[in-house]
Structure formats: C-alpha cells, structure tokens
Write a structure and sequence with these properties.
Length: 532
C-alpha cells in the first residue's frame, strides 16, 4: 500500500493495524492535507458480514459531524478493496497516553478530557447511535489536548425499534469495558455506553484497567462484570476525590435504570460534583422502550448510592438511639451506687470517672488528629501496601493452581502381581509426562482396605526426583490380609519448569510495587526527620 494512490491521496506510511484492517497515513496530492486511510484486510473482503460492518462504519461516520468525533472525508470501494478516508489526528490513543505520556490523570485534566468525550457521545446518542465499543484505545488525544472518538465499526443505529446489523444474543465489544447487559448479549441502548464511560473514567484516574487480563480469564472477567462492583478507584489511587468515586459507582451500576440516563446527566453530575438528582420532573422524562432513545429530555434515576446512603442513615439512627439508651442505664446504675456510699466516696468516684473520661477523650482526639495529619504520601503508602497484600495472595493462589496443573503431568500406574498367602506384591510405575519440568519430593500413598473398605494400613513411598520425560518403576511388598488397595500420588514439588507468563507478569508487578513502597517509606522518613 505504501507509495500507492487512493483517489487523490498518496499513501505514506502504516500507522497501525488490527484484526479487521490497517490504517495508513496519506497526503492529498494538491491540498497537502494529511488523512488517515482505514483499509479492510484483503483476506476479509469475501466475508459479506465484515464488508457490511465496514460499510456501516462509513454510513455512521458520515452522519456525524462533531468537534470530538473523527470526521469521515470519503469512502471508496473498488477492485483493490474498501477504504475509509478520515481526519488524521496527530497524538496518542488514550490508553497509550495514560501509559507513556501522563500516567493517572489528576481531577482537572481528567475532567477536561472526559467532558469532551461526553459531548461527542451525547451528540451521537441524540442521533440514535450507540457506540458499543467504548475504550481508551478508541479515543485519540491530539497534541492540542483535544479528544476525538473513533471506530464506530460495531455501532448500532436504532431505527424503527430494530437494531441494525446485530442479532439479539450476539456479543460485540471489548470485554474489559462491556456493560452487564452487553455480556449477556441483550439489546443495548445509550446506557450501555454510559457504563463503558464509567470504566473509562476509572482508568483515566488510576492509569490502569480495573481488570487484569494477563492473569484473569475472559470467563472470570465476565463473571465479575455481572456479579461484582468495580473495585474502588481510591484503593488504587488515593487522591481520587470522593465525589468522582461515587459518580463512577453510579455510572457503572449493574442495572441500567440505576445509572445516569444520558451523557448530559453524567456531565451535569460531574460539573455539580453530585450524584444524580432523585427528583423527577414532568417535562424532563427520558424513555428507553423498545430501544428508542430520547436524549433531548432526560429524567435522572434514583441512584444505588442514594439508596445505600438512606439505608446507612437508618442504621446510624438506630445505633444512636441504642447508644443513648445504654448511657442512660449506666448513668442510672452509677447514681444508685453513689447513693449507697458516703459523700467523700461519691466525690472521689466522680473525680475518677471524670479523669477516665478525659483520658479517653484525649486518646480519641489524638487518634483523630493522627488520621487528619496523614499526608498524601502516607495515604498512597497505605493503598500500595493493601495492593501488595492482594498481589501476594493472588500470587500464592496462582502458584497453587499452577502446581496442581503441573502435578497432573505425573502419572501413577499400578498393577497387582500377587495377593496370595497374605502377601501383596504391587508393581508401580511413575511417569513424568512433562518435557519442560522435573519434580522432587514425590510421595505415593498405597492404602490397604478390608471388605467394608475400612483402612487397614497406609504405606508411603518417596521418590527423591524424577526428570523430564522420565519413568520410574518399583515394587511394593506387604504381608497383610486385605481385600483391596488403592495407589495414588499424594504430593510432588515441581522444579525447573518453564516460566509462566502470567505468573511472571504478576511477579514483575509485585517487584515494581515493592520498589515504589520502599521509595515512599524513605520519603516519609526523611519528611519526619525534617519535621522533628
């Protein structure tokens, strides 16, 4: 493709490629304008469904003219293939921007970008278009800081209650950012995009995805999306403001009715630093029936956060009443006791009680003071140490799983040679099927049973080591009146096995975390010495 001409554009270089096709940088021969040309993979040209999706992206983009959506200039189909000629944005995809340029974004920068993204999607939703594949890699950040949405390849256009291109039950999109209804293959509306935007905002504030696809299977992630709330962004990056944490929780609610019902409502909540308004207005009603979208007027739904807070208030009220009731009883008992003692004793008792109360109050004040004085570094250290504990637990669990899987490669076979005259002779063969791992400390259990399957005797046989692909045979002789026996592997320790990529990635992440914790502790110690 490089060096070829597409219409009036000269192809200069490859910008990127994926499963569906490649994207090239090209320049208009007369005007000098740079464009991005998306080319359908030639291997897919004969697949009608793929061609239809490519054409649909052209149709969708042609109907969208917005500052925060990549503009389509032209579309071409000829004997060489299918081509989308689009606006070229010099900059980085948001995921790359977070990893290589900025790291986790602070509140002001994150909202500056996110407001632009919301404006773009509000415009698309108002025209009945649901993106369905919102993720950081589909949002470009230009060198001027402007955000541009791209890749409407699997967008759904809702017309006459019929979703274009996609059958019910079909799952499209990127698993990490899917809404629960998308995971279940249900029909989607704009609120599914709201969920994906909530996950995207989570990643903008923390610099990472809430799920680790290096060690978690697709099935595990699907299950978490359906049954678990997103992890708290503050647990990964303590400086995330409380109101942003709450807004993410509303946007990523499992039930679409509990989310913000439009991008406008989500933006309004961010600008006002509040969760959704629970008062419904007569004029501002939003309907989502049969996949029709009315984004001109929206009704904020009561959020799950509000329900949780109301429940907490009731719990706190009950605890307060109980607390004062107990205080009253204790006070009454003290009065009774005082009345039974001389006046001097009463005074002494009162003084002691007062002294104790003062001591307790001082302790509480010191605790609160200490909490308030925690610096951002100390808060981040707390968060990182929690992450470290979680990673260590996950590593242990993964090592256990890996060991179990490896041990399945040790095959123990047995054959009875003789059980006459009360003497058992058993031939046992242990084979290491792995060609890239050896084992040590292998223990084989041979258990002898009577007719009622009661254990008569257990014999342990140890093998010091078994190499890759090796087979070891031995005999077990026992003088015993038994009816039957069983022979199985109890335990073995795998050694010198090939590195596991997921475990290796987890270990590297743990080491990086360890270094960061060490640096933070040193920084805090220096600050403490400076303050002293």
């Amino acid at each position: 493709m490089i060096g070829e001409r597409i219409l009036n554009y000269q192809v200069e270089k490859l910008l990127g490629e994926g499963g569906v096709g490649q994207v090239y940088l090209a320049t208009h021969i007369q005007l000098g304008r740079k464009v991005a040309i998306k080319v359908l993979n030639p291997a897919l040209v004969n697949y009608q469904e793929v061609k239809d999706r490519f054409r649909q992206e052209a149709t969708t983009l042609s109907s969208l003219q917005h500052l925060n959506i990549v503009t389509l200039y032209d579309y071409l189909e000829n004997e060489k293939g299918l081509f989308l000629i689009m606006e070229y944005v010099e900059g980085h995809p948001l995921d790359e921007y977070l990893q290589k340029v900025s790291g986790p974004l602070n509140e002001k920068r994150a909202l500056d970008i996110f407001y632009q993204i919301l404006d773009g999607f509000a415009y698309a939703h108002a025209r009945g278009i649901v993106h369905r594949d919102i993720k950081p890699s589909n949002i470009l950040i230009g060198l001027d800081g402007q955000a541009k949405i791209l890749d409407f390849g699997i967008a759904k256009i809702l017309k006459n209650d019929k979703p274009a291109m996609t059958k019910a039950g079909a799952r499209v999109g990127t698993v990490l950012y899917m809404s629960p209804e998308q995971v279940k293959g249900e029909n989607l509306d704009a609120r599914s995009d709201i969920y994906s935007l909530g996950v995207t905002l989570w990643e903008m504030l923390t610099g990472k995805s809430p799920y680790n696809e290096n060690i978690e299977t697709e099935f595990t992630i699907y299950n978490k999306i359906l049954n678990e709330n997103l992890p708290k962004a503050k647990d990964f990056y303590p400086s995330v403001p409380d109101y942003l944490q709450k807004i993410i929780e509303v946007a990523s609610s499992k039930n679409p009715n509990d989310r913000y019902q439009s991008c406008e409502e989500l933006k309004r909540a961010l600008m006002e630093k509040v969760t959704p308004i629970t008062q419904k207005t007569t004029q501002g009603s939003s309907t989502y029936t049969n996949n029709n979208i009315n984004t001109a007027n929206t009704t904020p739904a009561r959020s799950r956060i509000d329900q949780i807070q109301a429940s907490r208030k009731r719990s706190y009220t009950f605890l307060y009443v109980l607390f004062f009731f107990l205080i009253a009883i204790v006070g009454y008992l003290i009065v009774l006791e005082i009345n039974k003692t001389p006046k001097e004793t009463n005074n002494e008792l009162a003084e002691n009680v007062d002294t104790l109360n003062k001591k307790e109050n001082k302790k509480e004040e010191k605790k609160e003071e200490k909490k308030e004085k925690k610096s951002e570094d100390e808060l981040e250290l707390d968060s990182l140490e929690r992450q470290q504990t979680k990673l260590e637990e996950k590593e242990k669990e993964y090592q256990k799983i890996l060991k179990s899987e490896l041990n399945k490669s040790l095959i123990v076979a047995d054959q009875l040679e003789s059980d006459e005259m009360g003497e058992y002779i058993i031939n046992i063969e242990v084979t290491n099927k792995k060609t890239d791992a050896k084992f040590k400390d292998i223990i084989i259990d041979i258990v002898f049973l009577d007719k009622s399957k009661k254990e008569l005797k257990k014999v342990e046989k140890e093998i010091a080591e078994i190499n890759e692909g090796q087979k070891i045979t031995f005999k077990v002789k026992e003088t015993i009146n038994a009816s039957k026996y069983s022979c199985k592997l109890r335990s073995a320790t795998p050694v010198e096995f090939s590195k596991n990529e997921a475990l290796d990635s987890l270990s590297k992440e743990k080491d990086l975390l360890k270094d960061r914790i060490k640096d933070l502790k040193e920084k805090i110690r220096k600050q403490e010495r400076k303050n002293d």
